[in-house]
Structure formats: structure tokens, C-alpha cells
Amino acid sequence: MGTANGDGATDRDAVREVLEKARAEGRESLTAPEGRRVCEAYGIPTPGEGLAGSAEEAVTLAAELGGPVAMKIVSPDILHKTEAGGVLVDVRGEQAVAQAYEQIVAGARAHDAAAEITGVQVQQMLSGGHEVIIGATTDPTFGKVVVFGLGGVLVEVLKDVTFRLAPVSGGEAISMLDDIAAAEVLKGARGAEPVDRDALAGLIRRLSKLVTDFPQIREFDLNPVFATPGGACAADVRILLEPDEVPEPQRYSQEEILRVMNRLMRPSAVAVVGASAEEGKIGNSVMKNLITGGFAGKIYPINPKADEILGLKAYHSVDEVPGDIDVAVFAVPAKFVPAAVAEVGRNDVPVAVLIPSGFAETGNVALQEEVVATAREHNVRLLGPNIYGYYYTPQNLCATFCTPYDVKGGIALTSQSGGIGMAILGFARTTKMGVSAIVGLGNKSDVDEDDLLTFFESDDDTTCVAMHLEDLKDGRAFFEAARRITRKKPVIVLKAGRTSMGARAASSHTGALAGDDKIYDDILRQSGVVRAPGLAEMLEYARGLPVLPTPKGENVVIITGAGGSGVLLSDACVDNGLTLMEIPPDLDESFRRFIPPFGAAGNPIDITGGEPPATYEATIRLGLEDPRIHALIIGYWHTIVTPPMVFAELTARVVEEARANGINKPVVASLAGDTEVEQASDHLFDHGIVAHPYTTEKPVAVLGAKYRWARSAGLV
Amino acid sequence: MGTANGDGATDRDAVREVLEKARAEGRESLTAPEGRRVCEAYGIPTPGEGLAGSAEEAVTLAAELGGPVAMKIVSPDILHKTEAGGVLVDVRGEQAVAQAYEQIVAGARAHDAAAEITGVQVQQMLSGGHEVIIGATTDPTFGKVVVFGLGGVLVEVLKDVTFRLAPVSGGEAISMLDDIAAAEVLKGARGAEPVDRDALAGLIRRLSKLVTDFPQIREFDLNPVFATPGGACAADVRILLEPDEVPEPQRYSQEEILRVMNRLMRPSAVAVVGASAEEGKIGNSVMKNLITGGFAGKIYPINPKADEILGLKAYHSVDEVPGDIDVAVFAVPAKFVPAAVAEVGRNDVPVAVLIPSGFAETGNVALQEEVVATAREHNVRLLGPNIYGYYYTPQNLCATFCTPYDVKGGIALTSQSGGIGMAILGFARTTKMGVSAIVGLGNKSDVDEDDLLTFFESDDDTTCVAMHLEDLKDGRAFFEAARRITRKKPVIVLKAGRTSMGARAASSHTGALAGDDKIYDDILRQSGVVRAPGLAEMLEYARGLPVLPTPKGENVVIITGAGGSGVLLSDACVDNGLTLMEIPPDLDESFRRFIPPFGAAGNPIDITGGEPPATYEATIRLGLEDPRIHALIIGYWHTIVTPPMVFAELTARVVEEARANGINKPVVASLAGDTEVEQASDHLFDHGIVAHPYTTEKPVAVLGAKYRWARSAGLV
After folding, report:
1. Please, are residues A111 and A475 in contact by the beta-carbon 8 Å criterion?
2. What's the pTM value of the predicted model, to 2 decimals?
3. What is the CATH T-level fold of the domain B555-712, as seen in this structure?
4. Hey, of A190, A559, A571, which one would you mutate to test binding to chain B, going by the most B CBs within 10 A of its CB?
5. Which of A714, B260, B449, B677 has the smallest number of CB atoms closer than 10 Å to its CB?
6. What ipTM was predicted for this assembly?
7. Strands A217-228, A130-139: parallel, antiparallel or unpaired by DSSP?
8. For the segment A428-450, what is each residue's pLDDT rounded down to a tens digit?
9. Which of A181, A417, A610 sits opposite B564 (nearest CB)?
10. Chains A and B: how many Cβ contacts under 8 Å?
11. CATH number belonging to domain B12-18+21-26+32-41+128-241
12. Of A157, A158, A672, the CB nearest to B423
């Protein structure tokens, strides 16, 4: 069945020739022999076959192919082969092949005595092993994606498939085999021999390379592929072509992006186009926030009718401003935006922040297009329109009509929707979340998530990114930026519209296998992003991830004062893909020294409810100091013996001592008790321990998100 | 294939005879012919078969059976039929049957010339349709349960099965067919003809009746059952028997339970055994809480050394107490409990609340057993041991060492774990949750969830119940109590230990199909209980469900000021099984009258962000007044035009006006904005609207939980 490791030689010219012929003939699909030729050119195994002109030739061919064969009449005059008795399957053995040849030819003659008979096609019959589906399709967001799944009911009914952006690496191809629910089947469930995983993965790689090399291939189905212990072979090939050239989206180099983003985020001078002295106007709020937020650079209010606004000299137009401007924040009605964009462009302002609404979101698509065209013409990049503005705390920059925010920290948040932006602000304020940036993206007429990721990747003040998004303008650009930054910093994504499953006109099997969201889900994971299931989770991950050190291994230990919390924390560990460490006997013995005889060592370590602070302290310290343990989950139970704040203070102290000694392990805590546990949780959070009252799930989910990122970045 | 609607006549005597014979012979399994006879007696179709003594008889039999047959040698001397060439399958046609007969007999003779040959068994071969598995097993918690699933990889690898408590009704049996992930397959996916669902459901019912009638049947596998458009037939039957009699758990009648529970919850007199004047002692805390909690009945402190405690006359023993005692709350060390239980029993106290720990939870099982035996002997029911006590607010009763709680309301909460009980108390206090009862169950040596459910069912002060539990002592008693109460009041269950999957010694296929949790999950749902995925959800459902009116239909409408929230709220609706109403044109038109032209009617109804309070008010009022709408989800976006409290007050007012006019629809709200949305959410909650800041998921999840309950109670 050939080597199919994905690295073999490829014959691009052969594929190009087939595709050009089809296009020259105005076809959007390839014939079966053409599909076969394309597969061969990229080393994708298909069943052996040949044409026999006699019974003897048929016997020889069948022997070469080995195993049972299918035999079919080949005649330009016989269209319906089966009706002519021209198809026999599962033919085994010399005698049977010879007989079948004669029978087929006789049948054809009986059907049409005048028919010209070219011969009989003899084709290797595949069977045994498992039928799988491997395909590629062209996604409107991500471009070429490959899909893998088992056949039959698993794909048809359960949609048990997995997607990856093409091309895939060897590791990614292997991960596809493991990513379906029925993965066990291929590993040899029920005592069967496992299939050749390398052969299957190689086939996926080759297909992904093929559609990447030839973007004019719209869809490519190998269905079924027979996966056996000895190899993988595509029994049926179906290829559809793009009727037209596909335009490439506008892209910028990393350098170009960084040049503009650095001026946006760390400006020396900001102009406010439409600045106003009038209370209640957006142009007034923006001015106030820039000033009271503490921005140290120059602020140029632009207003044709004012000479001074909020104590600052105002300019009648951007043209009048004496120095360079890094950012122009717009607070003028939509209709004035195109001319103002042209004006800032003429003055070499590299980026305009378009707060105004009244564009595509209200149906005024033409106005937005006019703005985008004007901006491109004048080399101005656009943030928005239809946004609340943006914050960048390292520069004390609050270029927004919302209220200032000043709790500095490592998390950068972005939102496509203004409502979600407001929720981010409120949540951040109430939890005192340390923030580097909050950015509204709104209509995303130009600057989008990949521009921001490129900046945040380079930004030492940002240690973690959280993004709310409803769609991606350019999924591939996002993927590439995300894959780079997630090697270094966690990126959390709340992808809204998960369930809309937009009605996709899917012309092929592969295309119809999943709604948009499955593709988003798989490819976001492939990019290394941690996906949050909802808004509340996105916010909690954003708050918690920068607080937690990166775990250095998978061994998680639960230490709990409440057996009941221990059970729920264990459930949460399983739900979040965490591994409860099997405690080695010596470590078990060490823990036992600190806990009552009826307490339970093992994992969870149940220190029991009536214990004094010293027991929490000793066990937590042991958990931190033993190098075989990589992360701690603490379940606290409010008692008179160890009140909440006593617990919080001792835990914070022990963790801080350990960190001072170079022991950096993530520690999270669940606090069960009366209302004092709220203050105790806040105290813990302030000291680098992700702690929550009244829930066993939240702290473990945050730890799970940290682990998901650390694994994708290859750190654990 | 026989009628298999589950209502047909049954022949119990035939089954009894088979089972008695097997038991008499000391067997724990039935032979194939015995299994067949048992199936026949309950109308479970099995393949036709017969014994042929000659080739002619075989031909006649095969013709009667119809279709292909399997043929097997029948000989007392041939144990390994296949080795003797004694098995042929898929034999079709007169000639082939006759030949097969001769071949089998010849093969047998060649194998063992001296073998006595009884004849050849001719059995109908089933094929076509779908192979399914139907079985019954004996669960340690729930007793007889039935299972259903499709065969092959779906069961083996994906564990796509569903369980029900036996016996099942017709509706429950049908629900099993729909409850597996691959349900579509049976409905005729890929253009196939659907199977005979009634026949399959009937087979499930009959099997469930059989194992209910004969509890000595431990396991019963029908695997595979062939499900076709024309019927259902069990191709293979496997029955295992209980080696010993199974003892019935201790059960009380509803009347007995209510008599004791009413005295526990609404006592006229409470004795505190181990009452203490000494600060810091549990017997002191309990006394204080009873007094400061405002309990209006008599309180009898019992202490051998005191004459007065906290201003109340104390008694040296229970014997000295002049009047009747309804409850004795114990605050003495564990070792004194047995004697004290005997003492309260002698004084006709019907129930003892055992706060002390030091029993089974610390390994002291013997002491606990002694207490239980003593209590049973003296006709005393026990709550605990190892609990924080209990609260019942309608009686201002705080019989606990924790702090008093006085926010009265309809929700009763119970917990198996003390830690979780403390989390309940803290959460309740911080959210001002209206509570009727909080009860600790601890070691559950006697009183357990079904006793409490029976009381709460009858208690007009309780409108909703939430229970944390790790196991059920008697799953069937719980099921029956839960099924009764959930017809009237929602019951929320947090089942901890979901993922432990305890190592079950499963001797049969059916038994091995799922971990404990899958059985819990299916049977809790069957009982009408709403299962909470975690502690935080249990608490939010408990807080929210009593606040929301019961929906009268499935039409849910989202009204939102933020498009971004609308998308996330829609996702949450799908996640929580809610149906977004398709808005009829006239209603769409009505909504459009209130919103800007670029706003989106449809559902979500996006009124857009810049709208004044009047737009929220008009659209919410319309949503409440139109009788085709059954529930509202509101997405609020904080703006200067409509600040949070303005929104909260207008929404509360509109909803209250509607309720005054008899319009009772559940309304939930998600508030996105700066920190003022927290106060606004509280205001809404206080006015019967489940509202949460910074999350789109929580309010929808609470509405979803209300719907789940309402559907199970047949109210929607």
C-alpha cells in the first residue's frame, strides 16, 4: 500500500496537468481516473487495478493485485454496466477470475452484440480493517481544512469527526486519530489488531499538502479509506474544483503590524477628533478620560469651533496640530468620518480609532466601505468603527467614553461587542483584576484580533490575552498569530455564536460533516488557544491565569478539610482534564504524619474538619516542597478552630515563602463556609492563589485552563 | 415475531419452574433452552427453532421458519460442536438444508463414530435491521435496572446506552429509544426504513416486568436483539441468578415518616442533650442558636451538672423533663450517645439529632451500629450522626452549632457533607436566599433523603428542594419519593462522586456497560429530579427556581440591548435545551414599532444599545402581554441613556404590573455593564426576576433548570 508518511516525493506537474485540463474543459469535478492520478502523484494509495484483454491476462492481473478482485466490463458502448451483467465483485482464485472474465464478456455480448469491448477492468477489492473518512474542504473563515472520522453511523449520525487547518504536521495528523470519540476503535478495541496509525496519518498529511499546494481544489473526499494493520488505502476519490480564482485577504507583515500597533498602544501624542467641552458628549468623555486617566503624552483636542477644551489648547483641524500624532480618536458623527480619515491620513497619522456608530451595524455598509477605502488610500489603519474605544494601562491611556480603569496587570482583553466590553470593565473593577489593555473591536473594518495578538505577543506588559469574538475576518491570519503567541502566553477565546450552525451550502460529504462551530473549536485548539465555554468562564480564566505559575508536570494533589469538598473537587479535576497524582508510599507516609489517624491520605488528602491551622500549614507546605507534586488544590472548611482569615493568611504565607525559595507551583482553593470566606478568598487571590467561595468547580476550571495552555505550549 | 407491547399475558409459573429447578441444582446461570423458555413466558420473541431427525425434517423445519437457518449437531457426546464440524450457518434453500444435514451428521460421525446423535437443531437466522442490546441488571443502589443501546462500537467504545429503573412504563421504554446519542439510527437515518419502535419498547417493558416479578434474576442480557421495521427478536439470551436471598432495606410507610418528620421539623419541645453554659462548646452554641433564633416552643437543656443554662431551667436527665419532647438534639461525645439514645427512647422521644462525630466517618463503625440498633429497639429515628444540625425557618428553629439563619423562603436544602452545608449557609446569607430548611444528613445512619423529601412534599412552606448527596442508601425509596414530590415541586440534586466510577465487579455485559454515574444520571432524570452539574449551579438553581413562575409553554424570547449579549444568550439557550420562539409576522411587526429601523426583530430581538428606558419598557411589556410568548430573557447593556438602576426599576415594575394582572411568566436577565449592574441585579432578584451581572450563562441556566423540572412534571 506504499509508504504514506507524508514526506515522500510528490509530482506537482502531474496534478497541475490534470487540474488545468479540467479547468480548460470547464469542469468543476474530476473523473475517477483523474482523481486516481492526483492521488498517485502525492503518494495517496488507491486500490491496484488494470485492464485485461483476455481471461489469461485477468488471471495474471488478479494474482499481481493479490486477494479478491472486482471485475467490470470496459466498453464505450455499454453505459449501464450492471444491467449488462458487466460487474462481478469479490472474485477469488484463478479459476473464478477466468470464468468471471468469460461471463462478463458473454453477458456484454448478449446485452449488445455490436458493442465494442475494450476489455475487463480488474481492481483490487479492499476489505477488512476499518472504513474511515479523510477529506479536505475550503472553509470560508479558515481556508483549507482537513477532516478525519470513522465511517458509517459514527460520521452520519454522531458527527464524530475532527478538523485541522491544512497543511498539518505529522504530530497534528496523529492527534486527529486520537481526537475522535471512537478513537479506541483504531487502537484495537475488543482485542482486534490496531490499524497502521502512521499510514493513516501520512495519508492525512499528504492530502493536506495537496490542497495547500493546489488551492483551486475546493473539496477532496477520500471515502471510504480502508485502514488496516498493514496500511491505509483510499477506495473512492472525489475531487471538486473552485470555479473562480479566490482573492487573498489583505495582509500585513508582522513588522508593519507592530509599527502601527506600537503607535496605537504607546502613543506620544493623541488627537481627539470631535473633542468637546460639552458635558454628556462622547468627545467630552473621551477628553476627560484621557486627562483623568493620567495619560502623560500630548493630547490634541480637535474642534473647528473651540480654542480650548478642558484646559488644553484646541485645534480647528488636524492640519493645524504642530507636532506628530500617533493616534486620532474619533468622536464625530458617522457622516463626517470619511473626510476626517482623509485629513488624518494627509497628516501621516498611522491609525484612527473610530468610536462612532452608524456604519455596517446599522445597515450603512456603503459608508463603512467608503471609510475603509479612504483609509487604505491614505495608509491609515482603523480600529472600529462602533466601539467604546480602548485602554492601555502601562501608558495610563483611557481613550474611551467609558470610565477610566487603573488597576494595572498582565491581562489584555478585547471584545467584538460593546456590551461584552462593558461586562469586562465591570467585572475587572469589582474583582480588581490587573489589566494591561481593554480594546473594543466593533465592526472590525480593519484592525482585528491578529493585529492585536501580534502586538500583545511583543508586549512585555501583557502576560495573558482574553478575546471575545463572534467571527474572524481571516481565520488563517488569526491562527498564525495565535500559534506564535500561545507558545509564550495564554490566549483565552470566547467564541460566541457557537450554536448558530449557520446554514452552510455544503456540496460534499466533507463539507457537510459539521457546522461552523466544530471547525472553529478544533482549529482554535490547534492554534493553542484556550476556549472558554461562556462569558463568566472567560472572565474567570482572565482573572486567574496570570495569577498562577505555569505547572511543570501533571501531578495534581487535593488537600481538603471537608471530605465532601474533596469528592466534588475530584469530579472537577476529571471534568477539567487534570490528573490526580498517585501518591507514592513514602509521600503518603509523610502526609499521614500530620493528619488524624481516621483522616484519609491518598488523593484527595482529607485532613478532616476539626483540624487546627497547623495541619493545613504542614500539609500545604509538604505539598509545595515535594518536587513530585506539580499543583495544589485546597478545599477549606470553615470551622471555629481554623477560621477563614486564619486559613487565608497562613496559606498565603506558606505559598509566598515557597515562592521566595523558588518553588513556583499553581495553587487554587475552594472555600466552603459562612460569608467570611468571601474576604478570605479575596485575600488569597491578592496573594497569588486563585480562590473562590461557595464553588468547587471554578478554581479547578481555572487550573484546568492553565494546564490546557501549558500543554499546548509544550511546557508541561 | 409476536406482539411485544409489554401488556400481553405472562406465564409466571413457567418462569418460576425454570428458576426453581436451577436453584435446586445449585446453578447461578440458566441454559440456553431455559433462557428461551423464560423469554417465551413473557412474550419476548426469540428465533424459531426445532430439532430435525432427518434431512427431510430439516427441510420442512427450515421452510416453516423461513429465510436462512443455522444448523447445529445435537449430541450428548459432542461438547465442542464446531470442532466436530457440527455447526453451519446461513444455510439457504431446500437442497442446501438437506445437504447440510447430511454433512453435519457425517462430520459428527467422523469426529466420534460412537457418538449418540439426537439430531440437528435448525434455527431461524436473524439478520437485517439493527442489532441492539437490551438488558437488566441489579444495581447495588437502585435494584433492578434496565439498559438499552445499539450494538457494536457504539456500546463497546462509546458506551452509548441508557438506563431506567425497572419496571418501566410504555412511555419510559419509548424514551429509552430516544435517549441514546445514536437515536437517529433507529428512526431511519440515511433513508433507511425506521425500526418498529413499539416492538422494541414492548420488549424492554416485558424484560423490566420479568426482573421485577423475579428479583432472584440478577442479570438478564438480550444481546443482540434484531430490531427491524417488522418487529424485534432476541437472538441470544443470557440469564444469571442471585446465589442468595437479597435482604430488603428497612422501609417506613409515608404516614410513619410524616409523623416523625413533622415532630422533627415542627416540634413543640426540644431537648438539648449535653447543653452547656460554657462558651465554645457545641452544646452551648446549639442552646444559643435555639434561643436567639427565636424558637417559640419549649427548650429543655439536659446536663447532669447544671440547674440553669442561659436562663433556662436545666434537667439532669431526660427522665426528669416534665413534658413531652419532640426532638432531642445531641451535643455529647460519641461514646455517650448509645446510652443517651436509649434514654430518650424510654421517654418516647421520636427522633434524635446526632451532631457528634466519631462514628463511621472516623472508622468507628461498631459504635454507629450500636447506636442504630439501640435506636431501632427504642423506636427512635436518627438524624446524623456527624452533622451541623438543622434549620427550619417557619418555626424559627436553628438546632445547630453554626450561626442562626432567618431569611425565610421556599427553598429547603440538605447536604450529606458538613463542608457543603457551610457553603450553603454562606451562599444563602450573602445572596439573602429565602430558605425554609437546611438539614445536615452526615453519616445517614437512619433518616435520609427520602424521609426529607416525603416531609418537604407535604410542607406548604417549602416550594423547592435542593440536595447535595454522595450516595443513596436506598435508591428505590429515593426514586419513589422523588417521583411523587417532583410532580408538584422542583427537586435539585447535586450528586457528588460523578466521576469516581467505583470499581464495580461486573460479571455481565449489561453490568459493565456504564459506571455508577450513568445509572444515577438516567434514574435521577427518570425520577423527575433536576441534576445540577456542580455546587455553584446547585446553589444558583436553588436561589432562582422558587423565584421564577412555572412556564406554560416552550416559546422563549430574548430581548437585548447588546447584540453581543444576544448571541451569547442564544448559545446559552441551545446549551440549556430552550427553544427560541419563531416570532410570527404580526408579533414581529409589533416589536418593530418600538425599535430603531436598524435594530433586529426576530429572536433575539435586538433593540440596540443607544435606546432609552421607554424602549426596554415597551418591548418587555409586549413580551409579557402576548400570550404566545412563555418566557423572557433580557440582555441589558449599560449606557448613559438607560443606567442600570433605571433599567432594573422599570423592569421590576413592568413585571410586577403584569403579575398583578395575572400574567406569570418567568423572566431572567443578564446585565453587562460597570459595577452598578451588581446592585441592579440584586434589585431585580428581589422583584422576582433572576438576574446576574457579567454572565450570559447563569440566568439562562436557571431558566433551563426550571423548564427541565416543568417538563418532567408535565406542566409545560
Report:
1. no
2. 0.92
3. Rossmann fold (3.40.50)
4. A571
5. A714
6. 0.91
7. antiparallel
8. 999 999 999 999 999 999 999 99
9. A417
10. 240
11. 3.30.470.20
12. A672
